[in-house]
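Late entry, evening session. Most of the bench is empty. Finally got around to the prediction I had been postponing all week. Sequence below, unchanged from the version circulated by S.P.
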Amino acid sequence: MIFTHLYFFRQYDISDVTADEEEVKRFLPELNQPSARRRRDLVRRTRNDLARWETEKLHIAVTGNSGVGKSSFINAIRGLHPGDAGWAPVDVVEGTMRPTQYNHPVFPNILLWDLPGVGTKNFRRETYMAQVEFERYDFYIIICAGRFTENDLWLAETIHQKGKTFFFVRTKVQQEIDNARRVYAGESVFDENVVLRKMRKNCSDSLPKSRGRELFLIDNYEPQLYDFGKLAMAIIHQSPHKKKEAATFGMCLLTEDVIKAKEEELKKRIWKTALMVAVTEASPIDFLGISSTDEYLLKEAHFYREQFQLTDAHLEKYASAEGKTKQEFVECKQLKSTILSHRAKIPMLLNMLGKSSPKVNFILLPVLTAVTSGAVSFGTAMKFLRVALNVAVEDVRKINRAMKSHTR
């Protein structure tokens, strides 16, 4: 029976909803024997799978000398501004005297650490690793604002020898470009790319040729420019395998590549969420512990809005920056994801989104038909989650385009 289901599973295009065949196999025994206990186990295991990333702690160490922009970087990568809760104070005088933890604004399992620079009288090379608790961190970001020092290079080599990942980051790029623009104010043509190439070469010359580690030029106050987006993707790709999902969902910088990475991870959740809803809908027992399966689907849709910074709080900030009310901003940008905040039945929301009958490949439909009466619920859930994700992705791209045109 399992092999029949898997054969059917292969016949459908699942390119828009990622589902690994081996992963599907793990769920089939419960579907083939649909007792109440089996269904309860299936829902429990699926919920645990979906929430596992929240239990994986990701520790990111940020190190460098005082004044290079570590605190500003920690704020920028978390999407925080002065006055926001958890904002790291920027103090170039006192500097960091001990490892200081900063939590992600939404997900407490993602932690950034501001570490003291190595080579000072309080943090000598021979004791540095023990003082900062080296093994705690998943990877290191080594920051400079000019050229990397001998102490930076020693730290990079030590990290490499101990089998951990690090990134070289050069900050304050916009400041350097503005300085160059003032110097060459009398020139008929000013080429920003020439300045960037000189900065990269000057910084790269201080790095060992054999290291082969990519250098990222960023500005903490202009995270949409320069290499910040590349750095964000490097953090996602280089995170330990079991923590990649946490790194992806925890990334606040929404470049096009990050949007795609988030979209792919969210797609992986769709069939599992729909499966849970179908099993619960077909059973007289409330396995999800909620008032309705519609509520559970709306909770997942809210997670999409949260991931792409489309919640009401985010929209209020965007609107305020343009001198508009939230409603004016939503109408001006023609955003549809706000519909996902309505407490309505799922078919009604699909109609409101203008997607009442999207094409759906029912990849698990025969399995559900054979063991439950929840096939319609499964199909509706799949439709809704696909539409909700597509709408959220469309909206964040609209906002990104508007922000880019506004800054030109």
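Two things to note before I forget:
Confidence is low (pLDDT under 50) at residues 1-15, 356-376.
The longest helix spans residues 375-407.
Will write this up properly tomorrow.
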